[in-house]
User: Fold these one by one.
Assistant:
Number 1:
Amino acid sequence: MSSSAAKPPIIPLPEVTRLSPAVIRILGGNPGKFTLQGTNTYLVGTGPQRLLIDSGAGERSWISALQRTLAEEKAHLSAAIITHWHHDHTGGIRHLLDWNSNIKVYKNQPTYLPGHHGSPVSLEQIGTETLLPIEDGQEFSVEGATLKAVHTPGHTVDHMVLHLAEEDALFTGDNVLGHGTAVYEDLGTYLDSLERMRGLFKGKGYPGHGPVVEDGPAKIVEYIRHRQQREEQVIETLRAFTAKEDDGDGWTPMELVKIIYQGVPETLHIPAAGGVTQILHKLRKEGKVTTAGGGDRWRLIDRSAL
């Protein structure tokens, strides 16, 4: 799922698109501020059996498009692989199993489905006994496609990416998107996963939202640099505040946002403050900043460097 920060204009995408001989993208039918053109799901393989990556948000239009595409391809599903627990990627599992209860559905940490954005996923509806675990390094194969699953937490604790050997491409889930930047639960863990992903492939990135990323590794480098720049801005802003005046008990994330994000509409300041807070928590783990009295006011630890 994308960040709400400013992004390039969103280019409309067709509901179903063949992206390569082995990859067909089927949109989830759930466009929006955070989901961009909608959640990308992918039909992978070239023969009578195919693999499905993610299941959208549970829109009826999605399951209809999937069924139609499989009929046109004269193929059926061997298995569905879920990249992570968020509702816009798991919501269609129930439709899949209602359609064909024999479909094998794989997900890292199968019982970890806490729900998302007011749309809880019912374990009873899905039937977790039908969800099979994914191990780091596990492979899934059909004619024309071999996928290797790699655990890359950060966006969520259960997040997996999938390397497509035949194209040296990577299904990046929500760790890397086709537009803008991604949100994450833990910045340090997320950056570690980006570094791991960077070395997995040399080709395209097939993201969880947005268009295909033509140079996947370059996009990951761009993501890492962007996060590093934001971190440097937070440190420099704290340093400037402390050098110019008595910082008292420190500065809140929102006070930092109002300096770092000058010129950005105030409607984006609240989500920006969430990102700044993640940076501050990472810096605290590294011993670079601290809070006053356990509150939400932050300051540099190494004041001698001012």
Number 2:
Amino acid sequence: MKPVEISLKYQGKIEVMPKVPISSYDDFSVIYTPGVAEVVKEISKDKDKSFQLTSRWNNVAIITDGTRVLGLGNVGPEASLPVMEGKALLFKYLGGVDAIPLPLAVRDPDTIINVVSALEPSFGGINLEDVESPKCFYILEKLQERMNIPVWHDDQQGTAGAVLAALINAMKVAGKGLDSKIVIFGAGAANIATVRLLKAYGFDPKRMIVVDREGVLHAERRDLDAMMFSHKWKYEIAVTTNGFNITTLDEAFKGADILIAASMPGPNTIPKRWISLMKDPIVFALANPVPEIYPSDAIDAGAKVVATGRSDFPNQVNNSLIFPGVFRGVLDSRSSKVDDAMVIAGAEALARFAERKGISPTYIIPRMDEWDAYYELASAVAEKAVERGYARVRLSREEFRLMAKTKIEQTRNKIRAIQNVD
């Protein structure tokens, strides 16, 4: 069936189902009034009990204003809803997380911040989605400062986490290290977050060359002063990266070890000639639906490891490997935050999972159908939340892994049971 036919048949991708058994009319007096008053009183004495006595602990809000949806751009909140429903389905199926799509009919960043902040009592976490740059950076930072639950922007942290997980193993396969010269092609939300995460992991920002639509970012670029006011996050990258003071694309690619591209779809956004200037390179061409350069062309030009954002090529780097496990981990630990250290812990867990199976040029990161990878990622994130002092629940890594495994497997079993009945 075609996407529109499926949507018309099912009239949406998700629904809400009760999980408390209901066997008779008398059950309502316990589930609702008057019995529920006892639960209300408990939470009124201690707000944190809302994580124990309600569904809040497993609820995530998917927030968007519809300004940057997939490759479609500014389609508005109503048109963004099918994407957010799809995201909610992935949250549930891959992570056992109850996610509620909430497209907002507001564009002003401070208004979005106020609306989302007011939702905190209802949710255990916030997932920002498809918000245009650069306001997505501002919104994320302010919400993380203001809220006492994890706030995540999947286009930033999810993509950056997936890139790091794949890169850890790609470097082992290709014989590269933290001293690599890296070309970051594209300066949108994903790659700006990737620069930050790679720096936190230990890469030298001075050995990163970032390229936007106008060319190479460097400290002497003509538009730098204007950038300071229009996009301070890109400005910070311009003045902290590119210690070579490179100004041309040929210089950027010459002798580079790694290319991370998240820019315009190809297939010729990145020509083979640029890859041939690199040194036994790792090439991540992550644009969808068509990568900036096809893997076969990159390999012909000398690439040792190639990854894309697509499932029909080896080494799919996709944030769907990251966000279900990250939220499973932060929700199980009842974490108040999700920071770069937790994303790195999750990326390292994914990389170790793949390494145990045996990495190669065509297998550097788990596939989305390798379910055990989500348990490993979730437990690593939960353990790091405990270590960072954010967790309300403090368990061992193995206990968190078993908790995640149980929750995700139960969810899949329920879905299969419902589908069999239907």
Number 3:
Amino acid sequence: MLPQHVELRQVKYLNNLIEQDHRFIKRLTKPGMGFFSFETAWRTVQGFEVMNMLRKGQVQGVNKGDVQGQAALVARLFGVVA
């Protein structure tokens, strides 16, 4: 049962932006034939998302062409020595 205030919207392409956004992840993970555990999937998708955001220039504080800043951010996020 849904609460009274929930509105059902039946628009064919309402979530198209969401579907298009994760299409690149499906393309990257398909050759790997899936994941062996949820933890592996979680870490891999995190990496894909960070790299995609960097490529699109969506990270605040790091410019799109600032390679050193991007490398430092990735090192901080994932605990990798830059």
Number 4:
Amino acid sequence: MADTVVYLYAVTDADAPDPAVPAGVDGAPVRRVVAGPLAAVVSSVDAVRFGEEALQRSLEDLRWLEATARAHHAVVGAVAENGPVAPVRLATVYLDDERVRALLDERAAAFTAALDRVRGRVEWGVKGFATPSAAAAPAEPEPERGGGGPGASYLKRRLAQRDRATRGQEAAFAAAEEAHRALAAAALAHRTYKPQDRRLTGRAEEMVLNAAYLVDADAGDALRQVVEERSTGAVALELTGPWAPYSFATLEEPS
């Protein structure tokens, strides 16, 4: 068994400059494997630590996962500074350089199409959160009226609060959908994702939009303007980026 295996970060053009990053995953030097017009950006890593069984255990270790993801994304970001990049999934490992060259040869058309799709372009992310509003605020206690007693009055107030919260939530989703349509019109392509749970966002507000937008590298101001204009009323929008185009450099066409 060989002492090392090949960790794959991304695919780029063969004539792109070497990424300016001193080391990648596990502190390993970053290099390139070239096949025709394509280059795979890789590192040689320990065969035991990155073997199949070890990787399965490591992927359940949050500290390992965070450190590896940071190193992986740092390499991908460095590659993106020099040209188009098609990132691959975290912890993608091949036995040797020949297997990597075979991948580049077999998927040459798909990789080339993915690189052409993102050439000169970047990804921006937008998340939308429902904002507290009068419609969703707790109701003021109503004066007691005859009939039903205090229990019935309490139930009525709770039902009214729930109705207001439902209307506020519906308004937030509607505003998020309108914002998404405007953002998509300003972008070359877009992808939407399932809103994240509050436990992941760390926020009390409900997420109502989670999307990525592909634009030309110098067109970020158009998205920023939409976010500023639409971040009012029922929804608050947050713009992040620019990023390497993870959402759009896949081997499938985005919407």
